Amino acid sequence: MCQGALYVLYEGASRLRLVGGYAVDSSHPLPTDLELGEGLLGQCALDRQPRQLKDLPEQFWHVRTQLGASPASVLIVQPVLRGERLLGVVEMAGFRQPEENEALLLQEVLPRLAGAMAIMERSEAAKALLLETRRQADEMGTQTLQLEHQARELETQQAELRATEAWYRGIIEAAPDGMLVLGADGHILMTNPQMDTLFGYERGELIGASIEHLVPQAAHERHVRLRDGFIASGGTRQDGRRPR
After folding, report:
1. Which of 67, 99, 131 is the last residue of a domain?
2. Residue at a domain's end among 76, 99, 122
3. Per-residue pLDDT in tens (0 to 9) along the chain, 244 residues
4. Residue at 95 is within a domain
5. Which residues make beta-bridge pairs with 4?
6. How many structural domains compose the chain?
7. In what order do the strands lie in the sheet with 15-22?
8. Residue 214 is assigned to a structural domain of this protein
9. Which residues form the domain of 21?
């Protein structure tokens, strides 16, 4: 055999792919992919039947070298099987039919070729898995850096918030008048010592209590409406009345 080509059918694939050639003529490049059933090689992959053609017409195929070219007279197309599974197809062209010992050698070589192709396929799968693992590791590394950056930003924001809260609390506690901070739900979030003293409570005792706690019982319902309106308007109010 003077020229040859090996096509592989990867597991789960629907097309044959060229993986190697022998003495291939660059002026007549081999197709990199073949459909199952396309040409003699594709048909061999489809029905898994070997083919040997002889006495080929002169224009069928030429074996070329740097010194000249001559028409091939024999073509062999052989499936590469491992058990019931097709791993690929090998195609060879030459000037004469293989002799008996050469044909027997080919039949002995094909199972070894199938084993080598199975190892190659596993190696390619392992390489693809390694590349995917590295890609995922790179993505995780990038995400980790992003999370660390976000954590630092959040820590900075929390520190700024704590500083602002401390500054705000300092202003409220230093105020000469009684002051409190009310949440949107009507519960007290902060009081200053003057406010606690004004209403006769221990420091911090009013935190979490409803503002209605400081309003006479008879005025609770009306005060809720007033409170909601007050909060909605964003206004401020000073009040020194003690609950009765």
Report:
1. 99
2. 99
3. 788 999 999 888 889 999 999 888 877 888 999 999 999 999 999 999 999 988 888 777 777 777 777 888 899 999 999 988 999 999 999 888 888 999 899 989 999 999 988 888 888 889 989 999 999 999 999 999 999 999 999 999 999 999 988 888 888 888 888 888 888 888 888 888 888 888 889 988 889 998 888 888 888 888 888 888 877 776 555 554 444 4
4. yes
5. 22, 92
6. 2
7. 33-35, 15-22, 3-8, 85-94, 74-82, 51-54
8. yes
9. 3-99
Q: Do 180 and 94 belong together in one domain?
A: no
Q: Tokens 């070894």 identify what position?
A: 112
**Residue that has been written with the tokens 């850096």 in this structure:** 145
